[in-house]
Design a protein that fits this description.
Blueprint (H helix, E strand, L loop, with lengths): L1 H13 L5 E5 L5 E3 L2 E3 L4 E5 H5 L51 H18 E5 L8 E4 L1 E4 L5 E5 L2
Antiparallel strand pairs: 1-4, 2-3, 5-8, 6-7
Length: 154
């Protein structure tokens, strides 16, 4: 189950459903670094860009679920997850009081559905299928249809 969870996290890192969100400075002015922002300043956080930032994730454009695995004595250094990124560089469900209220349910549904599918089927892309690039339409969606083949396992 740890590897399945790592695969889901890595997929959400590369292709966040909600690629960004906005917030207002509500109560008081804020100073970030050397920049001053007055009350009611709108901010937009682009999760997609942050999750593809090489400063946050080594080999950011590569699908590497092992980056999310916690190390133990049975793993070599080369496969152990590092958690070297900033804790707010990966927040696919948001955070705090405005975070997704259904986060835990969504995670459990993904774990359950994918584990059952993988037990019963081998999933393959359609032969000759093109690489599908994401498009932003408020949500991140596939730019082309994704066709998969579900082959029953013996």
């Amino acid at each position: 189950m740890p590897f399945l969870k790592a695969v889901i996290k890595e997929t959400l890192r590369l292709y966040p459903v909600v690629p960004g969100n906005g917030r207002f400075v509500s109560e008081d002015e804020v100073v970030v670094g050397n920049y001053w922002f007055p009350k009611k300043t709108p901010f937009h956080l682009c999760h997609y860009s942050l999750c593809h930032d090489e400063d946050q994730f080594e080999d950011a454009e590569l699908f590497k679920p092992e980056r999310w695995l916690r190390g133990d004595s049975s793993r070599s250094k080369s496969t152990t997850g590092s958690y070297n990124h900033h804790p707010y560089s990966f927040i696919p469900f948001g955070l705090g009081v405005r975070g997704c209220i259904g986060k835990r349910v969504a995670e459990m549904e993904m774990y359950f559905a994918l584990s059952r599918l993988m037990q019963k089927f081998e999933v393959q892309p359609e032969p000759g299928a093109p690489v599908v690039e994401p498009k932003t339409r408020t949500l991140l969606i596939p730019g082309k249809p994704i066709n998969l083949r579900f082959l029953p396992r013996a």
